[in-house]
Amino acid sequence: MWGSKKNRDDDDEQPQDDVASSRRSYDPYEREPSERTRLLDRPRPPNAEGYLDPDDPAVSPYNLWSVRILRYFTVLFLMISFVWWVLLLVSIFVSPPGMHSRGSGFFDFAYTSLTLGNLLVAVIFFSAPAKALRITTAIITGLLLIDMIIILAVPRIRLEEGWPGIASVVWAVFIAAWCILTDRVVAWGKKEEEERLTGRPETRRTVKEWSAVLLATIFSIIFIIIALLFTSTLAIRIRDTTVDMAGDRILVDGDKYAVHLACVGNTTYTGKEKDATILLEAGEEPLEYDFEHWAWNAYENGTISRYCYWDRPGYAFSDNAPSPHSAGMSADALSEALAVAGEEGPWILVGAGTGTVVSRIFSSRHLKQVTGIMLVDPLHEDLLHRIGSPGRGFLLWGWGIISPLGIQRLVGAIFNGRTREDRVYGKSAYQNGKFIKAQLQENLVADSLSKNEVVSARNIQLADTPLVIVSSGIKCRTDNEWERKQEDLTKLTDNLVAWDVVNKAPHQVWDTLEGRTVMERDLKALVKAASKDRTPKIE
């Protein structure tokens, strides 16, 4: 009832606009409820059954405290995952104390990115539970569980991933399972509230709800594909751990990572003097691919009696080093590995491409032990900016981020007949996350730390050390600056044995017969020149 006539008359005297405004201000059904809105705070309009309309916003699973708590925890997990994601992103460039892993660091970052994706879908589409979403998330959980078992069960992969990788995949499994639980509880809460407030569970969905379910399911299917690629890449990594390796893996830098070192041949003596051992340094590719084959041929035909080679951090059988990692740090790691293995000089250094920077720094730090230097199409310190350009670094980072998907490796293994040797140190090694990380590390400090180290090495280098330079004719013809810098490198010492420009040879000079022939001839001359001067160089 509207009350007394007096009141009705007073109401009639009010302007019509004020009445409408007053009703809008105090009508509780004009306020959009939120997840914090308590049902008992809202008056219900009477109807025949005493139930709310199914489309009433008050009919919500948020009325249940258990659903609200699940949402709070989901948001909390999202915040924790984001902080961990940022730490892993930073560790790719600068390793925080205790967070270095011997692998690339891209896998743990990838798992955390997938975790963030799962949580974002769960938070954004929290109030639109669907059976399809629970099924797809269950598949993701199963695939991630397989990944976790692989990482924990395979010693080499477990060693490479370290505790950050293990923690990331375990967290990914937990969050995937949590998303299933959350969606199931929300679906239960939605049904309970509909039965309590409307008298029956709602079977209809609005266009908005159907759109939310469709989008969430599409995202989950994408996550399934990503998780499946992760699992396939791990399966390939298991296969790659069975590749035979000559020599040993030696822990360096306070046992933070291991590098691969191998030696071929026996120590020989000329009179009372020990003959020099050839120490090989790879260029832009793993040394085992083809550079070591040239050294083996030189050993077989008697040009040299013994040689040693190693893999820089991240190459072939070596672990990745903490970031940042400069050429001088690589030289120190090589020194430590040789000392641990009991290898002693004298050394004749044979380096190629970017590896010549490491060889030159090593020489300056072992003046007594280095009796000769041979540089094959070497990289000049003034050109380090080419491998240290920001564009190249961003490209390497991008390839590293998607490397856990292993698309190229999978295609190569299935359709192109790529072998495990190809992937570890052969023509497909560039697809490996460890190798990409090593290249990125070189890029980050090439024009700063590494350049300063090699410039200092040039000032320290002894002037009477025998030197050989072998340059690519193709590179010199197509790049005038490269040719000028090759000539400048012939002045590293005052004892130039030979400078040969191999006319038809590419940057990897040993890829051609003429290049291999010239290199072997010059190496023989270098060995002879080094053997003439056996007196101590420093008093």
What does this structure look like?
The protein is of the alpha/beta class. It folds into 2 domains: 61-240; 248-386 and 443-532, 3-Layer(aba) Sandwich (Rossmann fold), CATH 3.40.50. The chain has helices spanning 5-13, 16-26, 65-93, 106-124, 131-153, 155-198, 207-240, 291-300, 327-341, 355-365, 384-387, 390-402, 407-415, 420-425, 433-460, 473-478, 480-489, 513-532, and strands spanning 248-252, 257-265, 269-270, 273-274, 277-281, 306-310, 347-352, 370-376, 466-472, 495-502. An 8-stranded mixed β-sheet has the order 1-2-6-5-7-8-9-10, with helices on both faces. Helix 3 packs antiparallel against helix 4 (106-124) and helix 12 (390-402) runs antiparallel to helix 15 (433-460). The chain starts with a helix and ends in a 7-residue tail after the last helix. Residues 1-30, 38-42 and 535-539 have low confidence and may be disordered. Residues 1-53 are annotated as: Disordered. InterPro entries: AB_hydrolase_fold (IPR029058), DUF2417 (IPR019431). This is Mitochondrial integral membrane protein-like protein.
